[in-house]
Write a structure and sequence with these properties.
With 549 residues, this protein is of the alpha+beta class. The chain contains 17 helices and 20 strands. The strands form six sheets. The chain has a five-stranded antiparallel sheet. Strands 1-2-4-3 form a four-stranded mixed sheet. Helix 13 crosses helix 14. Bound molecules: flavin-adenine dinucleotide. The site of flavin-adenine dinucleotide has 33 residues, from strand 3, helix 6 and strand 10.
């Protein structure tokens, strides 16, 4: 017996003899070097931000298999069925903050699709692309630039992920609303089903279809949504709509002096966004210090000066006295130079009429294409589809904040409404207070605005690789927050595996009918329960146990 075999983690319910036999079959399918089983290799698939780091519950895979083709994926699925081995597909596996490349359960086999990295087509006349799962945002961008194509892809902050993986977990980006919804913006899918059969959806179901990535619906039921945040298949190809590169780009900053100005501000921005006058609005408050830097001590003292809770009047007074705008929104505008200039004038008129003391200032103004220097100095590269990794200054690199081992995102969706945001701040602050913890939310915490028609009021809960107590506390706060949010009608849009049961559990209208429906499907199309058990809170019958109790 080799050293690897001796220390091997086994998949749930699979004995060692069967697992070793299955490994031999996997090796026959993909070649020995693409079955990763040494501890050194397997540990690369741990969730780098795991809230269970080094605890028995940490979902470390037993091994990883990296196929090169759809046919190899089909063969892997057949072997998994034969031995009832749970397999967990990842595209580029960079889902940090939501589980990274680790599966839902300790011992599941990761099917790593990074070698399936063909850019099948990029069309800059009809503005779409068709990609395999291993194509990263960097790969696609480089291909577009090298071939001088006139389209851009909507991207998330970290450029090393993939359009396929990101969209299958409902990821979001930074251009105009319709493109920011990465799953909503996909068009056409090819999937290996749990029995190994290959299916194409929508127009793709028509052999020789000429609009795979252009017309979302073929004929009959639209099933694509079943393959996102779920475990009904392994996606091997997807089409996406792309945005033509604009002729001109302008970044404008809107500032307002008062906290309550948020209410009319959001209303106007909703109008501007939904009319496609502006792209992504980045909401912030200049009262927040630069990330990782300490907050002004006077301002900080007001966060707890009213019986342990924030004194909003003092905070407002501090902002006015120091001439610090309470809110600042950066918006990008795309189009021809004249059209963008006219829209800026329109915005100035609208805001000055509606909000006393508001200002609209142009902070960046470029004709495209940009020079390399301009690209480098661009404030928000993602708003022009330029992939990068600059966002990793956050959490792990801040000077002030600890621990520095990563974070888990808590991502509830709330209405795109100023009043609701202020209410949400209050509820979170109260919850932290009741838990006896320093509040991570302040009266100037801002919403995240990737969603096209809603806000996400997100918290990144820090976790530790050294201190298990921090992780235990973090898991408790996370769980409490999910429940508190649900009580107010706010639900998470996405969650890391350890929290998928609790998050999906609050979507329980009519005695959990949504979950029960998903389980019926699971039992029918994946009777052996081999694809990603537990993903999205959907468990196969044999592992369901009392999960819904
Ligand atoms: C600092 C920071 C900033 C971030 N900013 C953003 C952001 O702006 N926008 C955003 O959306 N996210 C963001 N994220 C989250 C995450 O990093 C990205 O969403 C990332 O793109 C996801 O990783 P991936 O693309 O490699 O997907 P993967 O990890 O490959 O896939 C995600 C999940 O989808 C499923 N899946 C993947 N491929 C398949 C397949 N072929 N078939 C079936 N199921 C599959 C798996 O369950 C997998 O776990 C951020 C994270 C951090 C830490």
């Amino acid at each position: 017996m080799s050293k690897n075999e001796d220390t091997m983690i086994l998949p749930n319910g699979v004995n060692k003899k069967d697992f070793l036999a299955a490994i031999k079959e996997f090796e026959k399918i993909v070649g020995k070097k693409w079955v990763f089983k040494s501890k050194e290799d397997v540990y690369l698939y741990r969730d780098a931000y795991s809230p269970y780091w080094d605890e028995p519950e940490e979902p470390i895979p037993s091994l990883a298999v990296a196929p090169k083709s759809t046919e190899e994926v089909q063969e892997i699925v057949k072997v998994a069925n034969q031995y009832k081995i749970p397999i967990f597909p990842i595209s580029t596996g960079k889902n940090l903050g939501y589980g990274s490349s680790a599966p839902n359960n300790r011992g599941d086999v990761v099917v790593d699709l990074k070698r399936m990295n063909k850019i099948i087509e990029v069309n800059d006349k009809r503005n779409y692309c068709i990609l395999e799962p291993g194509v990263s945002y960097f790969d696609l961008y480089n291909y577009i630039e090298e071939n001088n194509l006139n389209v851009m892809m909507d991207i998330p902050d970290p450029g090393w992920g993939s359009p396929v993986g990101n969209s299958l977990d409902h990821g979001w980006g930074y251009l105009h609303g319709q493109f920011r919804d990465h799953f909503g913006n996909h068009c056409g899918m090819e999937v290996v089903l749990p029995n190994g059969e290959l299916m194409r959806t929508a127009m793709g179901a028509l052999p020789g279809a000429k609009t795979f990535a252009e017309n979302k619906y073929g004929y009959g039921p639209y099933v694509d949504g079943l393959f996102s945040q779920s475990n009904f298949g392994i996606v091997t190809k997807m089409g996406f709509w792309m945005m033509p590169k604009p002729e001109h780009y302008t970044l404008a900053a809107i500032t307002v002096p008062r906290r309550d100005d948020l209410i009319p501000l959001v209303e106007i921005l909703n109008y501007l966004e939904d009319s496609s006058i502006v792209g992504w609005p980045l909401y912030r408050s200049p009262l927040n210090p630069e990330y990782g830097k300490p907050m002004n001590p006077e301002l900080k003292s007001y966060l707890t000066s009213k019986n342990g809770k924030p004194d909003i009047e003092k905070i407002q007074d501090y902002a006015l006295r120091n001439e610090i705008p309470y809110w600042r929104i950066d918006v990008s505008l795309y189009g021809t130079k004249d059209a963008v200039a006219a829209n800026i004038n329109y915005m100035k008129e609208r805001f000055s009429k509606a909000i006393k003391g508001s200002k609209v200032e142009v902070t960046e103004d470029y004709d495209l294409p940009l020079t390399e220097e301009q690209k480098k100095s661009l404030k928000h590269k993602v708003t022009l589809g330029i992939p990068n990794l600059e966002i990793f200054w956050l959490s792990t690199r801040g000077e002030e904040l600890g621990p520095k081992d990563g974070h888990v995102w808590f991502s509830p969706i709330i209405p795109r409404d100023g009043k609701e945001l202020l209410k949400c701040q209050e509820i979170y602050i109260d919850t932290f207070y009741e838990l006896g913890m320093e509040s991570m939310i302040t009266p100037f915490s801002h919403p995240r605005t990737w969603m096209y028609r809603a806000f996400c009021f997100m918290i990144g809960f820090a976790n530790s690789r050294e201190d298990k107590e921090i992780n235990e506390k973090m898991r408790k706060v996370y769980t409490t927050m999910v429940k508190v949010a649900a009580k107010h009608g706010w639900g998470d849009y996405r969650a890391a595996p350890p929290f998928q049961d609790i998050v999906s559990g609050v979507y329980n209208f009519n005695d959990n009918i949504l979950k029960r429906f998903a389980e019926q499907l699971k039992d029918t199309i994946d009777p052996n329960g081999i694809i990603a058990p537990g993903r999205g809170g959907i468990w196969p019958k044999r592992l369901r146990g009392d999960k819904n109790a």
